[in-house]
Amino acid sequence: NAGVTQTPKFQVLKTGQSMTLQCAQDMNHNSMYWYRQDPGMGLRLIYYSASEGTTDKGEVPNGYNVSRLNKREFSLRLESAAPSQTSVYFCASSGAGINQPQHFGDGTRLSIL
Amino acid sequence: GQQVMQIPQYQHVQEGEDFTTYCNSSTTLSNIQWYKQRPGGHPVFLIQLVKSGEVKKQKRLTFQFGEAKKNSSLHITATQTTDVGTYFCAVSSGTYKYIFGTGTRLKVLA
Q1: What are B95-107's pLDDT values in tens digits?
Q2: How far is A61 from chain B (nearest CA, A)?
Q3: Can you tell me the distance from the alpha carbon of A40 to that of B64, in angstroms, rounded to the nearest whole number?
């Protein structure tokens, strides 16, 4: 019973490189989310997908793109990484409807030099 | 836009003491969720409050939603070392877009 799986767990990039973070859930959830968490901070929503086929911007979408590949998978892409994007990235999923608990993956620790 | 203030930022308590964290919103909320994140871990859902004035309990944890649905609190009675972590509130105004508070980091001294 994996829940939400994120890959990779760690990554180091150089400024200007591109990268895609992968997220998959096996709970048949409709909604998926990408957050970033900076040291000592709360989580900030980057993008979310309320259901398969839809994506919407969150609080901090600039510099990122997302793809809801199917119901299970939601990927986050950095086209041209910048040091300000160094962070821990969490993917989450939730069931149908707006008042549902979110289940988080273990996170991807991303450093951009 | 919607703002969420969570206080205090940090709290150190002796084991056995009580602990409270508060979450305040600038707008009326549809619901509020509480999460706990252990050091180095990921957020884990604790509870959701939906109704005005709602109070829910989970063992030593008591969660309350304000009458005006603009604030909430989490109270832990007789803290234990297993309570260590950061407690976050997450609020929504009726959409899928959740705003997380900055969290309260709890340290319990044995």
Answers
A1: 788 899 999 999 9
A2: 13
A3: 25
